[in-house]
Amino acid sequence: MFFPFRNHTYRFLDVHTHRPNPAEKTLAVKNIFAHELLNHKFDFKENQYYSIGLHPWHIQEADLKREMKILIDYALHPQVLAIGEAGLDRCINTDWRVQTNIFFKHAELAEAVNKPLIIHCVRAYPEMIALKKQIRPASGWILHGYQANANITEQLVKNDFILSFGEILLKPKAAIHTIFAHLPANTYFLETDATEQTIDRVFARAAELRNLNEDDLQKQVFNNFSKWFWAE
Ligand SMILES: [Zn+2]
User: Is the peptide bond before 127 cis (omega within 30 degrees of 0)?
Assistant: First the structure.
């Protein structure tokens, strides 16, 4: 498939953000929640890009059918680059089977439209790996806000997950810095999520940690973008 950003002038890719507008020189994948689609509280702006999903924190049985339907309706929209964030969260009370079922539907939708899946995962990595083995998706599975330990990271990389890092890279002396520094080049993205951090700062810190100049880091990230967002 044609990669439409071949001659882009972007310097940064923010793979997951909740900011209303992208920062300068940034290709941002802004998250839109299913209930925002349903209530028309969103705005597809020209030259902006989105991901759409039902976050596990927002699962309400009463709205479920309508929300899943509207996600399907918008999934093929050319400005929707990814499905999600969707996922599994052990720290909320929502029934586990319901969470798993809804996540599964997002994974199926990502496969159907051939777009990557942006995943919110809290204390559910073994389950996530098991689900990936079961589904065997062709689409990329991107774990956003990533910060698990070295052992889990190794298993995730072995199972072709892509890890997205944000504010944690700017915190002092985090163990995840060493993990990030040694990841294979084709396994990561960078993001701002819902934090106050700016994507240029995340990129600068990421380059420092990986011992790359910023141009090379940007190339790496955009290579990953073309690979996972425009899979053949
Ligand atoms: Zn988020």
Answer: no
State pLDDT tens for residues 199-225: 999 999 999 999 999 999 999 999 999
Residue 1 lies in a domain: no
Dist. CA 26 → ligand 1 center (Å): 17
Of 147, 144, 180, give the one whose Cα is nearest residue 162: 144
Let me know if 210 is exposed, middle or buried by CB neighbors in 10 A (0-12, 13-18, 19+). Answer: middle
Position 61 scores a pLDDT of 85
Q: List all residues 6 or more positions away from 43 whose beta carbon is below 8 Å from its beta carbon.
A: none
On the CB side of 124, CA atoms within 13 Å amount to 21
pLDDT in tens, 8-51: 899 999 999 999 888 999 999 999 999 999 988 777 898 899 99
**CATH code of the domain containing 137:** 3.20.20.140
Taking the centre of ligand 1 as the mean of its atom positions, its distance from the CA of residue 18, in whole angstroms, is 6
H/E stretch holding 164 reads strand 161-165
Is 157 within a domain? yes
Number of domains the chain is built from = 1
Cα(100) to centroid(ligand 1), Å: 18
Q: Give SS3 for 188.
A: strand
Please tell me the distance between residue 196's alpha carbon and the centre of ligand 1 in angstroms. 13
Task: Read off the amino acid at residue 41.
Answer: K
